[in-house]
Amino acid sequence: MDQQRQKSIQRKTEAIFKKAEDRQKAGGDYFESGWQATLELMLLMMEEQLLESPGLLLPMQISDDDEWDFYLDVMEKLDLPAHTGAVLVTPSAFKEMKLPEFSEFEDSEIAPWKRNAYSLIISHLRDHTLILQASLPGIEFAGIDIFEDGKHFADYMYNTVEECLDDLSNVTWTYFRPKGDWSKDRIIRYTENWHGKSLYGVEGPDVKFHTEYSYVHNPELIDLTPLHAVFKLIKATVPKEYETLERAIEITNDLSRDMDLGEPVVTKAGIMRDEQAQCQALINRITVEIDTNLEMLSYQKGVKMPDRNIRNLDYNRVFDETVRNIYEVITGRGCPESVMVM
Question: Are 268 and 246 spatial neighbours (Cβ–Cβ below 8 Å)?
Fold first, then answer.
């Protein structure tokens, strides 16, 4: 962490404690104002990541498969508005925290890491006057607490963690539903965050989602046709599947070997030299990925799918453009004209 970032965190930490102190002096409850300050500190720990990934659920730390599986379960159940941020604090993250509030029961059986307890914190991206905290579970039960301006504003109690997760999106939208009309940028972010969950295997009808704010369910929201809306979403999602050119090459070669496709081994040097056979193999892999995404979207209720008939010239043209665009994003260079897309 650079010195400027350290100073910023120190300054913001002092402001959080000062705000809690002012709330207490104004007659606020000591514990409630103090606990909201603790939640704000946890959000501060993840501030950079939250601002870089608005509308996404971010884990503070993942240490094993159980924590990863729980994170995916929460991701499926949580429909997060695009202007908010959410942090999942795992048992292992709790254990490594050095917050004063945890020191008094560090060796106690009620410590979160000993109870395998998670905490979910949701707030607006910059203004943390309103904070939702889900205890999964709490010391006695699973529940959701709402804090506003240092006050414990509301709480919801559940018999099990599963019941709490099932109601999580309803409570989140009760307190964080956006006011007024959504901007195009917010609609785009919300839709692409939803479909981006498929990269983690989180997909299907059980994923919570407000389709009225989705541009593939309602292309007119951002002045697109169904054809261009669907391919816009694919262009935003597929490159994230690969992350780097090296990863794209690895996936391409693995698929070719496992499926016995008889394609040449793809190398970074070969792609950089525009070797046609290797470029074609990568193009073929991207084409398969696009087809997979199209099939996935076609099964989503309410998505306005374009006419995918192979004789549809507009469809073929946009498909071709999308493949070549994704190739360029992944490789950082133009797609050779000599390779065939469809």
Answer: yes
